Amino acid sequence: MFLQRPEFVQNLPFIPRDVISKNVVDLKIDLPHMPVWRKYARIVLPHIGLILLSLFYVVGGAFIFYHLESPNEMDIRRDTMELIEKERNEMLEYLWIKINDENYSEEELEQIALERVDNISRILFEAFDTHYVGLSLLQSENVNVTQGTWSMTTAIFFTSTLLTTIGYGNLVPVTSLGRMFCIFYALFGVPLILITVTDIGKFLSEQIVWLYTRYARAKHRFRDRLLQQQQQPLSSGAAELASASSPQRSMLRAQLHELGLDNVHIPITLIAAILIGYMSIGALLLASWENWALFDGFYYSFITMTTVGFGDLVPTKREFYIIDLFYIVVGLAITTMCIDLVGIEYIEKIHYFGRAISGARFALVNVGGKMVRVPDLMRCAHVLQQKYGQRKTSGKNKNDSTTTALLHQFIVGVEPMHQEILAIFDLLTLAHLPALNPCQV
């Protein structure tokens, strides 16, 4: 009994089995011959160019912010210091006059002194909050107003935290030109830095996958050798079968590696250990040169790596700003790597949950050396059950074993020796498949 091939199967191009076998073994991409250094240069140069462009954008923006905000800061600091000095002298002079005046009682003098102290306290608070005046500037007798809050180092730190969307808020533009430039600067800079950090994170994830793949293969080879040493001596037929299948398995593994079908799933515990370990190292370094507690350093690392940036803890040692920025950028790349390795995998599982079940109608099963789709196999099994199931059989009937074997052949099917070939067969078939109308599938 022959079943009609479905329309989906009829539209597939015919590919002889020897051609499929040859393509499975010799499937390679023919690339033009070029020197090795040019191949690596074509791979590396775009990434290096992206990093250099991001560095130029950060430093160039810092240079513009510095020249927009620094002169305004100097004027504000100079005016604020003059105001503080004036108010302090007036307060001392006024109190001295009132104390020497006998017409004022002790309660009245105390009230006058409190008013003057409240006034100077308000001025000092505004100077500390928005006028770039710090304690070291007030305590210094020879004030060097050129050493302001805005410098090239702090400007680079500001642009880096701005473009990475961390935004501590400890240093902000206050001029109209500075704020206008900040809008357009972040409008183009945030996507650029996001792409750069994602690219670095993708590179790190590929290296982690490569290292873990090497580790997994070494572990499998060690386990196979250990099992071979511990196994009992095989029979002659089993030994021949094992010796024949071993080269085929090696060949298939090599072809799957070239086609990218040997995906390795990185354990989530390993990714979490990398992230927590990096934060712990940063916590130790920050606690040592910022005089923070160890937990405060870890808290700052976590808030920064997640781009929350509360601003309650901010590095203040300018001599370590470059190291801080390097730590932040690498940490953001590691966070992106964790999302790339773990998050995307689970997102795809949730997104495509249930579609794999409906896609089983396109699966192929090897039955008697022929590739048959699962729905066709089930229809054939149903016909055989109706045809042979009505006959009365006995335990001594010679046809019992034949009928049972036939039903088992069509219902259960023969498990392919190498299921990996099915994936390669699907790739070769889809490569020659024309555009299909979704309504016909």
UniProtKB/TrEMBL annotation:
The keyword Transmembrane applies. One of its GO terms (cellular component) is plasma membrane. One of its GO terms (biological process) is stabilization of membrane potential. It is a multi-pass membrane protein. The keyword NADP does not apply. One of its GO terms (molecular function) is potassium ion leak channel activity. Keywords: Ion channel, Ion transport, Membrane, Transmembrane, Transmembrane helix, Transport. It comes from the Eukaryota. Pfam families: Ion_trans_2. Residues 146-205, 274-344 form the Potassium channel domain. It is found in: Membrane. The chain crosses the membrane at residues 43-68, 150-171, 183-204, 264-286, 298-314, 320-342. Gene3D superfamilies: 1.10.287.70. Belongs to the two pore domain potassium channel (TC 1.A.1.8) family. PANTHER family: POTASSIUM CHANNEL DOMAIN-CONTAINING PROTEIN, POTASSIUM CHANNEL, SUBFAMILY K. This is Potassium channel domain-containing protein. It comes from Meloidogyne enterolobii.
